[in-house]
Design brief:
By secondary structure, the chain is mainly alpha-helical. It contains seven helices and no strands.
Length: 190
């Protein structure tokens, strides 16, 4: 493992850890942290690829474009969840930042693993806080509303869905990103 790869992993881990701490404390992820992570990630990609290997000046633009595509992939993978109001904008932007650091293919797996981790986190939170019944009623209402919209009927009113609390979803993103990196290293075959 190259020294630059270790640096990349430490930088990404530090940025995500900062987001996790802030999200747990304030239930939001600061734009400043995400933007800093994106800028540093693009700068690092100017000189090193996703595996920490040095790139020539002729390869540099291709690697930076690939990093930007990873960021856009992360953004677009979670944008529908933001549109459905099941995820906050900070969570979407955090996955975009992860995409800059890891690239499109790995950010796809990070999104998949994040959704799985988020489900486990949501279930644990619902059980812990005693709101599991309301969560299940909310899921039923969302499914019925989506089905109605797909059949051309008006959506059910949002008043049928009651908030049960906000999850610090950066925790799920941290878990999902970690699993995606383990998968990329070949330690978690799928």
């Amino acid at each position: 493992m190259s020294l630059m790869l270790v640096f990349n992993l430490l930088m990404l881990s530090s940025l995500i850890a900062g987001a996790v701490v802030y999200d747990i404390r304030c239930r939001r992820i600061p734009n400043r942290l995400v933007l800093t992570g994106i800028v540093i990630g693009l700068f690092v990609r100017t000189f090193w690829d996703f595996n920490g290997e040095s790139v020539s000046m002729s390869q540099s633009l291709a690697v930076v474009v690939s990093a930007a595509m990873g960021g856009l992939s992360g953004l677009f993978l979670f944008l529908p969840f933001y549109a459905l109001r099941t995820m906050g904008a900070g969570d979407v932007k955090l996955l975009a930042m992860v995409g800059v650091w890891v690239g499109s293919q790995t950010v796809f797996w990070a999104a998949v693993f994040t959704l799985a981790a988020g489900g486990v986190l949501a279930l644990a939170f619902a059980l812990y806080s005693g709101v599991l019944r309301q969560v299940l009623q909310n899921v039923q209402a969302m499914v019925m509303s989506t089905t109605a919209r797909m059949q051309g009927a008006p959506a059910l009113p949002r008043s049928t869905i009651q908030t049960t609390g906000r999850l610090p979803y950066a925790v799920a993103i941290a878990c999902g990103t970690s699993l995606a990196l383990v998968h990329r290293a070949g330690w978690l075959p799928l």
